[in-house]
């Protein structure tokens, strides 16, 4: 199996080849079409040479053709089969390693239905064989996967033990650190310790990338000596080399072949730091001799601590400086950073939510949001997800709660409608978030964009977004912005136009814009864009000022045209100003 992301596509019939061309057009840089006359040979060639396979063949024929070359579920590439009518995309192999996702992607291109049969995905639980894979976890021994997975799916109590809290997806409610060993049916461990105590239970042990080995050496020290010292230091501390994420040293050793080769032989990256930076790291075993020679009192301990802290939210030394004749080694363990995903769900309709937003909801172990938005996505959350809901007006509390949960080490999704960065939760959350958590932003379709497409093309030229809510912004500031947008001749998109207690701001804003607009300029408003009861209206500024805005509320977006905006066939259009359009006829 290659890891280059190439998708091998095989089709044996004209209908299959037509559908295959659709995939090639959709993913021109990913698809490689295999054209051998015999479909079985083409299939085996794609299986050997590509990172994934899409076969426009029957599942049975695909399985028979691939049976002689199947190896291991962890290394074989994912395979998806599509039927002759392109109605179903079936994840046949490698479901947890990209096959289920690929089936969904293929189905989206072809207008088909993805078919997923892996038990954990059918039950919406986190698959154990890819648990923590995006964080760099490896599995110490895969033999316990089936037994532990069966216990989870059956709802039996499973004990979870971890050296630290990592931002992992949720496990079913029966899996908990509070499960007593004597009542547990199975055990899940996340540890960098080489020999955890024997439990007598079916177990899966994950190795997180939590360790950094710091190394210093004399010039010309042999790789064999450095490697032996590193291995001994890990062994004496009871640490597993599978959890080492990198080797770190001082920059003057960046070309030291012994260090580079020792790291290369173990599959580790090498990170280097200037001596001046390492000199500022507090260590238990400084050396004035080393300071005099290279400018820092520590290489091994300081480099390990610095690299581990850079990769996490802090670090501790778990193996102090160890020496051989020509080298030193030390090991630091990082404290994992929690993860905060800022997720915009789009304007309301499920199919207008970004696939990445839905993936983040699956990924999160804690979801924080407004109660009504959480109700919209409850069916998407994995079993075991902790939900923290609050009501309108509690935005600061939601932001602080989400950041605090991430700071504690959880994988958190803070959700809202539209785009998280537009009049939503991203900015208050980032006001509180420090460098001790990872933050991921997921773009979402905004209410203004959804409304614009219902009205026509009102945002075709320069435009400004202004919120009319004076709860957080003084009206004087809002008024200045309105006048600037009016004088600048922007199309203006008004958010939060009217509430039960704020009923005068919208007429005031329209009067300001009317000072710089003709009365017949188009105005559009949309209530509940992309929801079941959406309502879109195209009218004029004069009509709005004459009482046409009575049904506008906080669920409504109002768009006021620039002086160039016009109504074309009942649609609100703001021309871009292309030279070729100046002679275009207006459609009645």
Task: State the gist of this model.
This protein is of the alpha/beta class and 588 residues long. The protein contains 19 helices and 29 strands. Strand 1, helix 1 and strand 2 form a beta-alpha-beta unit.
| Principal-axes shape call | globular
CATH superfamily of the largest domain: Tetrapyrrole methylase, C-terminal domain
Mean pLDDT: 91
What is the total number of structural domains? 5
What CATH architecture of the largest domain would you give? 2-Layer Sandwich
Q: What is the strand arrangement across the widest sheet?
A: 2-1-3-4-5-6
Can you give the helix content as a percent range?
25-40%
CA-to-CA gap between the ends? 60 Å
Sheet of most strands: 6 strands, mixed
Evaluate the radius of gyration. 30 Å
Give the low-confidence spans.
Answer: none
Number of strands: 29
CATH class division of the largest domain: Alpha Beta
Question: What's the arrangement of secondary structure elements?
Answer:
Blueprint: E1 7-11, H1 14-26, E2 31-33, H2 39-49, E3 52-56, H3 59-66, E4 79-82, E5 88-93, H4 99-110, E6 113-115, H5 119-122, E7 138-139, H6 145-153, E8 158-162, E9 175-176, E10 186-190, E11 203-207, E12 211-217, H7 223-236, E13 244-250, H8 257-265, E14 269-273, H9 275-278, H10 288-294, H11 300-311, E15 315-323, E16 327-334, E17 338-344, H12 355-363, E18 366-370, H13 371-377, E19 386-390, H14 395-407, E20 411-416, H15 426-432, E21 437-442, H16 447-455, E22 456-457, E23 463-467, H17 475-487, E24 491-495, H18 505-514, E25 522-527, E26 535-540, H19 541-548, E27 556-560, E28 566-568, E29 571-573
Parallel strand pairs: 1-2, 1-3, 3-4, 5-6, 8-9, 8-10, 10-11, 12-13, 13-14, 17-20, 17-21, 18-19, 18-20, 22-29, 23-24
Antiparallel strand pairs: 4-5, 7-11, 12-16, 15-16, 24-27, 25-26, 25-27, 28-29
